[in-house]
Design brief:
This protein has 170 residues and is α+β, with helices and mostly antiparallel strands. The chain is built from five helices and eight strands; from the N terminus they run H-H-H-E-E-E-E-H-H-E-E-E-E. The strands form two sheets. A four-stranded antiparallel sheet has the order 1-2-3-4, covered by helices on one side. Strands 5-6-7-8 form a four-stranded antiparallel sheet, with no helix packed on it. The longest helix has 21 residues.
């Protein structure tokens, strides 16, 4: 009985998350660069996961869709309080800019919070994973590997074995 209650609760939470993720295109369509205000953005997307100071009065609001989603949004608010950019940042082009030696704080700034971070004690590596879609619909994982937890040692891309399209993978 207790297990079925937990499963029902998990199912309800998953359904709510899928409904939330499905609303992103609608929310985006309601915003316009140069016209929409920070209040408009927060009305559509809610409280950001992180606010990045861009200097000069500008800032970027991070809206993370990890670990269940496959997108992360960075929405820039200019010094005038208006939205100047709305970007989905989990793209092959952005991944190509992540290079060995880069500081992990910069990686986080570019990609948002990862879906998961896994330390491997035997190798001394830590894997930081972001789930994303390779256009048009291939679910993949972008992984940044660190050996000191602070700088990029290497990156790799592999199949997202946990994606619904792969039937839960393993």
């Amino acid at each position: 009985m207790r297990l079925s209650k937990h499963l029902a609760r998990a199912g309800a939470m998953a359904a709510a998350l899928l409904a939330l993720l499905g609303c992103d295109p609608q929310r985006i369509s309601e915003l316009e660069e140069g016209l929409s205000t920070e209040a408009d953005v927060r009305d559509r997307f809610g409280v950001p996961d992180k606010v990045w100071d861009d200097g000069g009065g500008a800032r970027t609001l991070e809206y993370n869709r990890q670990p269940a989603g496959q997108r992360n949004y960075m929405i820039t608010i200019g010094p005038d309080g208006k939205m100047s950019a709305l970007r989905q940042v989990l793209t092959p082009e952005n991944f190509a800019r992540i290079t060995p030696g880069m500081d992990m704080q910069e990686v986080r700034r570019r990609l948002g919070k990862p879906a998961k971070v896994t330390p491997y004690a035997l190798s001394g590596e830590t894997h930081h994973d972001w789930r994303f879609l390779e256009p048009p619909t291939t679910p993949l994982v972008f992984t940044v590997v660190t050996t000191d937890g602070r700088t990029v040692a290497r990156t790799m891309v592999g199949p997202d074995m946990d994606a619904p399209e792969n039937k839960g993978g393993r």
